[in-house]
């Protein structure tokens, strides 16, 4: 008979003390919401340094373009140099320009795929290389979107392709890394208030497309970065001890509408 696992006491179940987390695009929006909760739980966060350090939590910022392999490797090495390990990676950095296919240039297509999809591959490879060397497992959390499941609005075809790609990547990387106790999951947010979705940062066309989307949210509100931060803490901690290759939808019910 297999030995039953010890039950982690509730007081320790969300404790990330001694762990190091890299959160890409962690300085604002959803990434900041995630950095905040992981740092609060005790992880040394490689993101959003100044605001988190003010709270007395361990954090440092590394400027990186996630689509650039040498910069990504430097980011991973810096985290290990500063804190000694990488235990958690959150692939959050992403862009979502609302441009219809018929007006999207090949260069814009490449840019969306490079940041949203290639960036996830590069960061996963760089961080997992350290996790494999450390030999104590790890957690990788990919921020997809409800658009990885169903289109939220018109104008996001290439974005949707990138996020479907990240979800496919999540499942197969979960399979590949499971023998090494590296668990790979995804969070699919619905509409979240962030600088990227704020007034002024979207085109008039995108703002128009948002209106009917917002009207059909069953919870009758947009999400906040902390709504995602709390689920990231769940996936980064022992609360999700039997999960890999899953995608958690956090959308106020909008996929039902
Ligand atoms: N806000 C939403 O409604 C929503 C919904 C579903 C999914 N998402 C996803 O959540 C993630 C974060 O979205 P957000 O709304 O917080 O975005 P945001 O625009 O507010 O912030 C994006 C962050 O990513 C960083 N970033 C962009 N390009 C980068 C690059 N090449 N290299 C490194 N960092 C880069 C930015 O500097 C910024 O810190 C994205 O992957 C997005 O697709 C957002």
Descriptive report:
There is one protein chain. β4, α6 and β5 form a beta-alpha-beta unit. This protein has a 6-stranded parallel sheet with strand order 2-1-3-4-5-6, with helices on both faces. By secondary structure, it is an alpha/beta fold. Helix content is 43%, strand content 11%. The model has no long low-confidence stretch (mean pLDDT 95). It contains 8 helices and 6 strands; from the N terminus they run αβαβααβαβαβααβ. It has a single domain, classed as 3-Layer(aba) Sandwich (Rossmann fold). α2 packs across α8. The protein binds nicotinamide-adenine-dinucleotide. Nicotinamide-adenine-dinucleotide binds next to α2.
Describe the structure in brief.
This protein has about 260 residues and is α/β, with parallel strands linked by helices. The chain is built from 8 helices and 6 strands. The longest helix is centred in the middle third of the chain and has 29 residues.
**What small molecules does the structure contain?**
nicotinamide-adenine-dinucleotide
C-alpha termini separation: 46 Å
Q: In which range does the helix fraction lie? A: 40-55%
Give the CATH topology.
Rossmann fold
Largest sheet: 6 strands, parallel
Which CATH class? Alpha Beta
Strand order of the largest sheet: 2-1-3-4-5-6
The value of Rg in angstroms is 18 Å
